[in-house]
Design a protein that fits this description.
26% of the residues are buried. Helix 1 runs antiparallel to helix 2. With 109 residues, the chain is of the alpha+beta class. The protein is built from five helices and five strands. A hairpin with a 3-residue loop joins strand 4 and strand 5. Strands 1-2-5-4-3 form a five-stranded mixed beta sheet. The longest helix has 17 residues.
C-alpha cells in the first residue's frame, strides 16, 4: 500500500483517497481513488504506478482503460487503484458508493 500511495504522490495525482474494503468486497483489501488533471496526466500516473509496483517486486498488475485514460483501473492484488480525470470521477462517484455504511447498519428496527 505504501508503494502505491508514494507513487501516486510522486506523480502529482490529486485527491488521493484510500478506502478500506476488507469485509465489504472480495475484490481486495483496499481501494485507492485518485485523479489526474488530464488524459495525459492520468496515463502518466498509471504508468508510473505500474513501474513502481514492478520495481518493488510486486509483479505485473492488471490494467484496464490505459489507452483512453479517462479512467484507469489497476488491479495490484489486494489493492485496486482507480485513476480518473476529474469529470469522470465526479460522474461515477465511487467514494460515495464505497464509503457508505453497510446496509445492515442502516436497517431500522
Amino acid at each position: 500500500m505504501r508503494t502505491i500511495l508514494d507513487s501516486l504522490d510522486d506523480s502529482k495525482a490529486e485527491n488521493i483517497i484510500p478506502i478500506d474494503i476488507q469485509g465489504k468486497s472480495s475484490l481486495g483489501d483496499y481501494m485507492v481513488i485518485a485523479s489526474g488533471r488530464s488524459n495525459r496526466h492520468v496515463a502518466a500516473v498509471a504508468d508510473h504506478l505500474l513501474k513502481a509496483l514492478k520495481d518493488a517486486g510486486l509483479g505485473t498488475a492488471k490494467v484496464e482503460g490505459l489507452p483512453g485514460a479517462d479512467w484507469v483501473l489497476i488491479d495490484a492484488g489486494d489493492v485496486i487503484v482507480h485513476v480518473f480525470r476529474p469529470e469522470v470521477r465526479e460522474f461515477y462517484n465511487l467514494e460515495k458508493m464505497w464509503m457508505t455504511p453497510d446496509l445492515e447498519e442502516e436497517t431500522v428496527h
